[in-house]
Structure formats: C-alpha cells, structure tokens
Amino acid sequence: MTVPSPISRRLALSAAVTCLGLCATLLGAGGAEAAANCIKGDRKAPYTVGWANIYSVPTWMKQTEGTITAEVEALKKDGRVKDLMVTDAQGNAQTQIQQIQSMIDANVDAIVVIAGSSTALDRVISDACDKGIAVVNFDSLVDTDKVTAKINTDSNEWGSKAAQWMVDQLGGKGKIIIMNGPAGVSVSDDRRKGAQPVLDANKGLEVITETNTEYNVAPAQEAMTSLLFANPEIDGVLSLGGALSAGALLAFDRQGREPVPTTGENARQFLELWKEKGINGWATMQPNWLGALAVYTAVQALDGKPVPAFVKVPLPVIDDSTIDTYLARASEFPADGYIYSAYDKALFDKLLAQ
Questions:
Q1: Tens-place pLDDT, residues 120-135
Q2: Residue-level pLDDT at 35
Q3: Could you tell me the pTM of the whole model?
Q4: In this structure, how many other beta carbons lie within 10 angstroms of the beta carbon of residue 257?
Q5: Which residues, including other chains, have CB under 8 Å from residue 177's CB and lie 6 or more apart?
Q6: Which residues does residue 242 pair with via DSSP β-bridges, in sequence order?
Q7: End-to-end alpha carbon distance in the chain
Q8: CA geometry: angle at 126 spanning 100 and 109, to 5°?
C-alpha cells in the first residue's frame, strides 16, 4: 500500500474543501432561492400587512390606497394575507416614524410605505428590516437600502422627457414657469433634477420662476394665479406632476388668458381640460397600482420567492395620439382622480422578473 505524502494529503484536503464550497454554491443555485432582503425568521401565511401612508387626503393617495385594499382582499381569498393595518401620518414625517414603530411593535409581517422624508425614516425602516419584516417602499423613496424592495417609475426620466417635450414645442426658445410638487418629497425633487440637464442644454428656454405646491388643484391654481399677475408673458408651463397642470389651466382660463403648452400627468381634470381647450399637452403617470404591486411584492418575498431590490416601472406617454384612450375610461375614475392604466397579476410577475 502506498502512503500519500504530506504534500499529497494537503492538496487532496484543499481540493475537498474547494469542492464542498463549490458544491454548496451550486446546490444553492439549483435548489432554494436566497431569501429576499430583510426576510428572516419563522413567518408563515396568512400574513399581516401594514400600510404606512404619509397622508390620505389627496385623491391620488385615496386611489392608491384603493388598489392596496383591493390587492389585500384578493390575497385574503388566496389565504396569503390575514389583516391590513393602515395608518395616516397626515403629512408629518415624525408621526409616520411613530406609526411605523407601532407596526414593528405589533410584529406585522410586511410594511409598505410611501416616505414622507427621504432621510428621516431611514432608522425606523432599517429597524423593521433587522427584525425580519418585509419592507417595500414605493413612490417617494427612502435613502437607506435596508428594505426588501423599492418600486418606482424613473422620476429623473420623467423630468427629462417633460422638459425635452417643452423644448421641442417652443423650438428651444421662450419663457416658462416650472410647477413642482412639495419640496423634500423625493419624487418631486427627482423630477426637477431630471429636467435640469435638458434646461442647461437649451439656454434659449428661460425659467422665469417656479413654485412648489401640494398635489391638489386648488393650491396649484392659487399659485399659478399669483404667477400670472406677476408675469404677463408666459410661453409654457413645465408642470411636473399631479393636479398641478389642471390648476394651471384653470388659472389661465379664469384670467381670460390663452393656455400655453403644458406638461403634466394623468389627472382626469387635466386630461379633460387639455381636450376641451385644445392645448398642446404631454403627460405621463405614476400608476396608482404601485401600491397593489408593493403588497404583492411583499407577499412574494415572505413566501420565499426572489424579488429584485429595485422594480422599475416603465413610464407611459400620454399625448395627442393616446389621450382619447384614457378619456374613454374617465367615467371609471373620480372627477378629481387619476385615470391609471390597467393591471393584473401577469403584469406584476413580469415586473418582478426584471
């Protein structure tokens, strides 16, 4: 019998260790998928889901909550969800922190959240993740990556496309007003950041002023009314969301001024005014069903299925060639609501397969 030398034994041992590591890796790849971020502990269906809303007054938020509750009801029928806990921070980030902490204390299985601040919620969101709670953040995002998933459209792309449309409409020259959502809300700030490179590249487009308002018609109309008094010459309104565009058009109309090219999103009132006044318009949307997708994503993660850390939802374009298809469904939505696109499980599965 030949006795292996010490060198041979060391080589054989090293090969065995390497093989064990590689085999484990291959088994892991071919067997159970790695758990999504934050998912740990013994959590079993049916799950309790928390919906940490920053504020519920705007119609966009009410419609979004409607998609969340509808998704929860569907998942209840499938035996995947037991309860939905809903909170409303009424626009106060500190209140939202306390409400998320109450969800953590109640040991909910998942928290879906629109952040009232991109930074203030980081600590409590991270704490939820550390405790094995699925955290899905959509629309207005937190800075921390200690979440199961973030879901959003590309807000920078939104601003860039809106600004480029305005450049094309005005031939690169003219005076414009920019209408933003609330300062400090990530989607609003990111849209504005996305527009800036286009504005920088087209110096003939002069931004005479800009404003920040809530995503509601009344404050937007009031803000635009003041700006119209102060600025007799306006060639375009670069509105970056919500009912801001409808408020702008109403202000023009009530002052007897001709409307100008205006950007916006899928607010029903804006689309109807666009058609009624025959303006040059462009819009996209932040689909309300992002809320339903957030719930679906959280449950998928809790079920042990892989979900991407970031789910990018493509931006649709609403222009003269597509506006009629949206208005054809207007009666299905509130008069002050948003005409959002259809969604189903197949769409959600496609988005999660990115």
A1: 999 999 999 999 999 9
A2: 78
A3: 0.84
A4: 12
A5: 207, 208, 209, 210, 211, 224, 227, 231, 234, 236, 237, 238, 248
A6: none
A7: 58
A8: 55
What residue ranges define each of the domains in the chain, with the CATH number in brackets? 47-153+288-314 (3.40.50.2300), 155-284 (3.40.50.2300)
My answer on whether omega of the bond before 306 falls inside 30° of 0, hence cis, is no
Whole-angstrom distance, CA of residue 272 vs CA of residue 249: 11
Q: Which amino acid is at 353?
A: A
Q: Are 285 and 266 in contact (CB under 8 A)?
A: yes
Are the C-beta atoms of residues 134 and 38 closer than 8 Å to each other? yes
Which residue, among 195, 193, 199, has the nearest Cα to 172 in the 3D structure? 199
**Type of residue numbered 242:** G
Tokens of 181: 């959502």
Please state, in angstroms and rounded to a whole number, the distance separating the CA atoms of residues 38 and 222.
44
Q: What is the DSSP letter of 258?
A: P
pLDDT in tens, 28-73: 333 335 579 999 888 999 999 999 999 898 889 999 999 999 999 9
DSSP class of 214: -
User: Hunting for tokens 């705007």 — which residue is that?
Assistant: 58
Distance CA(72)–CA(137), nearest Å, equals 17
The CA distance from 248 to 281, in Å, is 12
CA separation for the pair 331, 310 (Å, rounded): 33
Virtual CA dihedral for 137, 142, 147, 152, nearest 10 degrees? 40
